[in-house]
Amino acid sequence: MHKKPLTSGLPLWEETEDRKVNSELADIVQSVSEAARSAEEMAELSKMVQKASEDLSSVSLTELRSDRFADAEKVSMKALSSATKQLSARLLASKGSQQQALKKLQTRLSSISKDIVSGREVLAKRAKLVEGKELLESEEKRLKSLEEAMASAQAVASLEEVTSGVLDDEKVEELSSVLDNARESLKVSAHVAARRRSTADGPLKAALQSLGERTAKAQSQLNAMLAASKAQRGRIQSAVKMREVKAKAELVEQLLDKVNETELPFLKGMEILPADEVAETVGAAEQAAEELEGAIVDARQFQASAAVDLKASLSADALKSFMKDVTEQSARVNAAAAQLLQFRKAHVARKKAAQRYEAESKVSELEKAVAELEDEAAGLLEGDLPEEELSLRSGEASAKVKSVQDAVAAARQLVFKCQRDGIEDFAAKLKDLQVRISQSNVTLGKAGKTIAGIELKFTAQRTRVEAVKALAEMEEQVERAQAACKPLLEDDAVAVLVDQYQQNVACALWKQMLEKGLGPERLFVEAGAKGGRLDADSLVNFLQAQATPTTKERRASLVARYATEEVSKGKGELVALRSKMQPKRARHRDEMMPRFKFLSTRAMPLLTQMPQEEEHGFDETLREWALMERVTLKFYAESEQDAEETTATPEADHDSVANGEGQTLQQEAASLDSNKKTKREFEVEARFLLSSPAFRSFVRHCQNKTIYLPDDDPDEFEMVLKFMTHARELPEIDPEKLVMLYGWYDKYEIRPLKPYLEKFILQTQIRRKADWDVLLTAHSLDMTDAVEDQVQMFLANEITAATVSYNSDHFNYLYQFVGVCGGSLDLAAFKKLLRRRFAVEHTAPLRSKGTTSQASPGDVFEAYTKVEGAEEVEGCLWPAGISGFLPVVHQGSKCLRQLTGLDAFWHWGDQEGRFSWRRWPRRCYRQQDLCCGCRCMLAERVVQESAESVRASAAKLEEKVKDFPASAKTSTDEVKAEVAKLLPKRQVPVAALSLLQKQMAMAKKNFAKVEAGVWGRGPC
């Protein structure tokens, strides 16, 4: 087979040198190649432009408008400039064979440059071609419109028909309209084409010449048609114009009749018309005259323009006949104009007479009103009337005085207008009217002074009563503020500090319950309760035997009880759950045994639905669960023995599972399960536990340990639940699972369950009676304010439903809820409370011992003082301020929580002096349960509100005294002096409240010091 030689035929050294030069000049070659490509693009576009220059129809307007031309020119100039710069710079530094190669590239680049320059010259013609192409298209469109118009004219009537004069009026009107449109199109088209034809060249000039010939042909046809139809079109146009001339003359005559109608009231006599109607008639006449004048001007202008428009369209005889008719119509318009001139001359005199009449009428009415008011003032001054009637009539008379004063001003203004218009024959009468107005004004002043004196007497008396009332209200505000601060200022606030000490004792009891593993019921019995009741002496003796929180360390431990716990236990401590308890009691064993028998039977099918761990396989997970269930079953089956004897051997368990004994254990456990209800409950619990990967991990780490579930020690079980709260995916909680969690919390007080329950409460919609368990759990776990608000709303809806229609189920569930919330009342008392009428207004009546008082929203102190110690109270403690039922009353301090309608239940819960183990102070519930800081805040709030009210009342009182006029009767002066003596008393409440504010500031500082001692426990 023949093989191609590997060399180019040149000597080796020359071939190597060529390759080296080509490699060094690759970038230059690339730039020159780009310039060559752009030159080719320019050449292609130049051919298109050259072709259009020779024949415009060969290239479309869209192609000529393309952006390719501008882009190609820009790209070519850029590529040429770049290649030239690179080549020039390389030539200066080159030599030998490289220089020779560069000179060859330079020659090629010069040729490319010439091509680009010539292409740009050709492309410069493109703008004129585009403009010419656009002109041809527009002229073609106009000429086509002209030709269509002429075709329409031919369709209406041919030239022969028009020349013969046999067309009817309808066809002549249509033909005239068509010819007018064609004439306008012809003017524009011919003018533009002639202007461009003089400057065009080449194919554009030929195309425009062709259009000119077509235009001339259409113009000749149009001129022939216009000449033939001139007489007929003139006849029709003159008839149309004449109709419009007559219509305008008729409108002038109609408006003249309207002007004559406005003249009738003046001919009858103005004495029979009221003054207001006279002015209205004068205005209507002037408006009608203006409308008539406008119509006359319009008619005359149209007559003149009609003669000019028809002069070229009509023959001499026809034009003469038309002008004769126009002259007749003009005579009608001129006659109306003459009558309008006479009307205006007469109207000037009537207008002056109307002004005289109106002025006399106004003065007469004024004198009559002043005389009536003078008589009324004399009757008030001399008559023996009761004070109530006298006060009422004097007030009405004062209002009349003001209206008559306005009438005096209006009369004077009208008389001045008559003088300004220069009514010479009325000058003497005007002076008389001015005298009469002045006399009426003097009489009005005397009557007004008498009425003002009587009115001022009653005003002064009312001011005195209001001043005394204002001072009394100011004193009440001071007493209210002093009552609010009294517990905090008297006897060193011993009662307040004792209340707070009792709360600390309750906290300590709860701490002891947790430390000793006691339940609330057991603590209640150990405190000395007998027959379900705990008397005061037994409780005192029990408290004296306990350690009281009187040290700093003790208080710190109490605060830690309510602080948020952080998970800080290490991995080793979490997985090393050691046995610290004795075997379970028989009761707890009987309760827990069915649960783990079911876990044994359900573990295998549940695990098949779970995701697998990355580091462990499916079989190993089964082995771990089988191990846990085996050890658990053995523990409960042998609970009669000691803890050491019930410990399972991990190695033996591994061997047993490996030999298949796990399935046998499940079959044995399944035979023990016969309760279907228990099986359903434990199915929910098993699914919930197994859905947590963290809990599975916990079991895997504990596979070599003996599993003991907790009994009375909540710490170990709390560890298990902490694993669940840190799972990668939280399982969804439905009401059934929530009830299960509530059972765990109720037995072990497990706080890590709180995030689960909060999330469920905020997302769920409670609609069923069974969902009350959700509310019980939410309140028991001490939820956030958002959760409590939702619970309050649902509780309000349920109470409303229970109040409207009695339902025993409603009452039972509500009573259960209140019991968990802390009430200790019995069911009968609670039903009695629910049947009461709850207020939904902005203020609610509170009835206690036969008296009724109003409680406003937000006034915490006042509401508490009204119901404290009452035997019988009706109404809601916190009335609705916005909407709904049992609303939230917001306070201004971060320390004090939101007080809600549940505070009412807390108040009723301790009416009989019983100790309720659930009434431990997690938050401020009642006025007695508030800490010192909160009570100071409430008292300061009352003092601040009282101070603001007192200052406002004092300012109003001072303004009332200043409003007394300087000129008053002796009796009024005495009242004024008496009220002035009351003014200094307004400073007494202000000074008292200022002193009270200073005392509260000092008390606050003292409480801050006390909180560091044995009494305090910090904010609520």
Major sheet strand order: 2-1-3
What is the strand content?
A: under 5%
Q: What ranges have pLDDT less than 50 throughout 5 or more consecutive residues? A: 1-15, 548-688, 690-695, 697-731, 798-851, 853-929, 966-971, 1011-1020
Major sheet attributes? 3 strands, antiparallel
The span between the termini is: 106 Å
How many H/I helices? 38
Structural class: mainly alpha
Please state the overall shape, judged from the principal axes of the Cα atoms.
flat
Whole-number radius of gyration? 56 Å
Average of pLDDT: 59
Helix content: over 70%
Number of strands: 3
Keywords: Coiled coil
InterPro entries: SKP1/BTB/POZ_sf (IPR011333)
Protein name: BTB domain-containing protein
Write the layout of secondary structure elements.
Layout: H1 12-24, H2 26-54, H3 61-64, H4 68-92, H5 97-123, H6 126-156, H7 159-164, H8 169-197, H9 202-228, H10 230-262, H11 264-268, H12 275-310, H13 316-382, H14 387-420, H15 427-489, H16 494-516, H17 520-526, H18 536-544, H19 552-562, H20 571-575, H21 586-607, H22 618-637, H23 650-658, H24 661-672, H25 676-690, H26 693-701, H27 714-725, H28 735-748, H29 754-763, H30 772-780, H31 785-804, H32 808-821, H33 827-834, E1 844-848, E2 851-855, H34 860-867, E3 873-874, H35 902-908, H36 932-962, H37 970-982, H38 987-1010
Antiparallel strand pairs: 1-2, 1-3
Helix pairs in contact: 2-4, 2-5, 4-5, 6-8, 6-9, 8-9, 8-10, 10-12, 10-13, 12-13, 13-14, 13-15, 14-15, 15-36, 15-37, 15-38, 16-19, 21-22, 21-24, 21-25, 22-23, 26-27, 28-30, 29-30, 30-32, 36-38
Keywords: Coiled coil
Coiled coil: 129-156, 242-295, 356-383, 464-491
Region (Disordered): 639-658
